[in-house]
C-alpha cells in the first residue's frame, strides 16, 4: 500500500526539506514539508504531514474527516513565509476541530508576503494535478488534500457575495497564475 508521503512525492517530487518545530522551538502537532517540485518548473509544493492524524469535523455533513493542506509557491519565495501560513492554518483547524471545505476563505488580513495584494487564502481542490491526487486512501482511511490558494480582499469579498462556485467560474475564465504570490486580483 502506498504511504501518504509516496502519494505526495509521486506528484510533487521528493521531499526537499521539512519542519517539525514551531518558531519557539516546540514540537508542532504535524510536520510541514517542502517538495522538490510543484505545478510547473518555477514552483514548489509545501504540505502538512500528520495533520490527518487529527480528525476534523465537516461543518456540512458532521462527519469526521482526515485532511492535509497544500500550498504551491514560487520556488524563489522564502520558505518561512509558506511554512508560517501552513502552520497557522493547520493549527487553527486542529484548535477548532473543523475541516476546511472547498470554498472556505481564511482572512483577509495583512498581505501574505510583503508587497503583495494577496491577503487571504481560498480552500479548493488541487486542480493543477490529476483528480486522484485530491484524495489519498490509506490504512487509516481517506485523507483529503486541500489546496490553499492566496487571493485578494476583493476576491474574498466576491466569494462572500456571489459564492465559491461563481469564483471558480471566474478562475476558469480568467486563468490567473495561482502560484504567483504577487499577482494582481482578477477583474470581478
What secondary-structure arrangement, pairings included, does this model have?
Blueprint: H1 4-12, E1 15-21, E2 27-35, E3 43-49, E4 56-57, E5 64-74, H2 79-96, E6 105-106, E7 118-124, E8 135-138, E9 141-152, H3 153-162, H4 164-174
Parallel strand pairs: 5-9
Antiparallel strand pairs: 1-2, 2-3, 3-5, 4-5, 6-7, 7-9, 8-9
Helix pairs in contact: 3-4
User: Radius of gyration, rounded?
Assistant: 16 Å
Give the overall pLDDT as a whole number: 95
| Structural class estimated from helices and strands | alpha+beta
Count of discrete domains: 1
What is the overall silhouette?
globular
Task: Let me know the largest β-sheet.
Answer: 9 strands, mixed
* Number of DSSP helical runs: 4
Count of β-strands: 9
Short key terms for the protein model shown above:
188 residues, alpha+beta, 9-stranded mixed β-sheet
Q: Could you explain how this protein is built, in words?
A:
By secondary structure, this protein is an alpha+beta fold. The protein has one domain. Helices cover 26% and strands 32% of the residues. It has 4 helices and 9 strands. Strands 1, 2, 3, 4, 5, 6, 7, 8 and 9 form a 9-stranded mixed sheet that branches. A hairpin with a 2-residue loop joins strand 8 and strand 9. The longest helix has 18 residues. The chain starts with a helix and ends in a 14-residue tail after the last helix. The mean pLDDT is 95.
